[in-house]
Amino acid sequence: MQIKPENYIRQIEAIFNAHRNPEIAGQMEAYMRNQFQFLGIKAPARRELLKPFLTKANLPPLNELNNIVVHFWENPQREYQFIVMEMANRYIKEMTPEYFKLFEYMISTKPWWDTVDFIASNLVGSLALHYPYQGMNQINRWRKSNNLWLVRTCLIFQLKYKDKVDEKLLFSLIEENIEHPDFFIRKAIGWALRQYGKFEPENVITFVNSHALSGLSKREALKNLK
Questions:
Q1: Domain map of the chain by residue range?
Q2: What's the whole-model pTM score?
Q3: Which CATH class is domain 95-226?
Q4: 1-94 belongs to which CATH class?
Q5: Do the domains at 1-94 and 95-226 have one common CATH topology?
Q6: pLDDT in tens, 144-186
Q7: Using CA atoms in the order 84, 89, 90, 91, what is the torsion angle rounded to 10 degrees?
């Protein structure tokens, strides 16, 4: 399937609109507390429909990504946000630090865990690993934000770092938010600790035992640890 660059957006919209399923859409909207509209295309089918648009031959140039992301992010159906997240992930090795600005837009606009967690652990995490100095500048700015989702991003952007996690940074971010009342922050604290505990279990146990974490954070952190 050869896709004309000038018709890239229209072809995606045409194919996905043709596969709408109102019944499934209603179920998806209910699951997401009716915050977003859906086409009713489940993840496996969505990825299959998207495949031709993500091949090397069909992907548009990187310099067109910003416009494509903004176009689909403004679309009311949630599947379109999922589409451009996966699309952006295909470009991650080519991206420069200027794309942190695009990620901030994606995190802050129509935010919920279904988009933020992917962006944080895949896009922000990968770019920050490639550009640690600029990545640290972003994290230091976002950690001071009043935006819940930017703070959550700071807590979980290292989820896929394995033994490359900056422990000092992780623990300091958690300490800054240890009394945060929001569920999503407390959950993120536990999730980040649980993931890091796969590689440094003793350090995580010591940290948990020496800090007054919320019950949710503590349960999540120690879920797989004795």
A1: 1-94, 95-226
A2: 0.95
A3: mainly alpha
A4: mainly alpha
A5: yes
A6: 999 999 999 999 999 999 999 999 999 999 999 999 999 999 9
A7: 100
